[in-house]
Amino acid sequence: MNPILRNILAVIAGIIVELFINGTLVSVGGHFLPIPEGVDPNDIESIKANIHLYSTKHFIAPFLAHAIGTLVGAFVACKIAVSSHKMLALVVAGFHFLGGLGMSFLLGFEPLSLTLIDLIFAYFPMAILAWKFAHPLKFAASKENDANIIDGNI
Q: Is 118 exposed, middle or buried (0-12, 13-18, 19+ CB in 10 A)?
């Protein structure tokens, strides 16, 4: 198969897996940590109007859904891809990040601290971690590999 086509398919597969895991974990999370009474989770206006009823615990499931979805989606992309593994993992994370950023805009970045934690830690760091998990031999404990990682020569 053409390497460029395979890399494109890797990104598409990563995004599909990422979205599936994200949706599943958000759904399941709602069963373990129910949303406040009277909030319709399918209506942005209802969430915005009742955001003051949410506590930190209500943001755990979405954060985990974003982080684990990105981690697994980027990992899948890295395993399928022929080359440019790190870049493709970051593309998958970028797609998911844009969705999270869009949702943050819709909710008015409320609460700001938890929104920033989600946007900073749930996407791109998870893609880098997925890339490292997908290629563990490149990270053997040697000074040469450490120097290559620092210089970006991998």
A: buried
Distance CA 72, CA 84 (A): 17
Model pTM?
Answer: 0.84
Contacts for 70 with CB less than 8 Å, ≥ 6 apart: 18, 92, 93, 96, 122, 123, 126, 127, 130
- φ, ψ of residue 13 to 5 degrees: the values are -60, -45
**Phi–psi pair at 142, nearest 5 degrees:** -140, 155
Q: Are 25 and 76 in contact (CB under 8 A)?
A: no
What residues have CB less than 8 Å from 54, skipping those under 6 apart?
Answer: 35, 36, 111
Where does the pLDDT of residue 98 fall: very low under 50, low under 70, confident under 90, or very high at 90 and above? very high
What is the rounded distance in angstroms from the CA atom of residue 118 to the CA atom of residue 110?
12
Over range 119-145, report the average pLDDT.
Answer: 81
